[in-house]
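Q: Structure tokens for this one, please.
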Amino acid sequence: MQSLLNAIRSYIPLSTDDEEVVHQLFRKKTLSKGEHLLEAGNVCRYVAFIETGLVRYYATDDKEEKTNYFNKEGDFVCDYMSFLPQTASFVSIQALEDTILYVINQSDLQTFYRDVEHGERFGRLGIEYVFVQAINQIRSLYIDPPEIRYQKFIASYPDISQRIPQYYIASYVGVKPQSLSRIRNRMAGKH
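A: Here is the predicted structure, written as tokens:
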């Protein structure tokens, strides 16, 4: 729980009373490797904080899964497009490792916003961060070639790239695994 408190403190100050509210509202949840926090078609019920572990977001079209995003320890996890309006999700969130989370449901999140002194500010700053990340990812998909997307992936996730299977990284970059191998070989040849 200390890492969750520290993550919240990176956005807002917390008093002792505020910390008690966090302890009351967040619940510990564990996922085994391969288990889902959310499956497409279901409603996202939680905002979660990853204490330890790693998850991926993915969507499935007629032919294949497409990895959209990764979150690791210290990150908040949620499909906000499902969570905020409480509608069916188009993405799944799956643990890539055994993962320990702290989760809060929508009702308790509203209590957090109300009862923590700067709770609403925390919510605003958190959503602003998610918005900027989403826009940057969409922009990159439209304008960056795969090699640049891979370089951005390595820059964004330098500490976890060895923990993610290469076929998920290839999917995230938007190429087949063989193409990712060629990109990696070209980059290795430049050094």
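A few notes: The domain at 2-119 is CATH 2.60.120.10 (Jelly Rolls). The CA atoms of residues 39 and 135 lie 23 Å apart.
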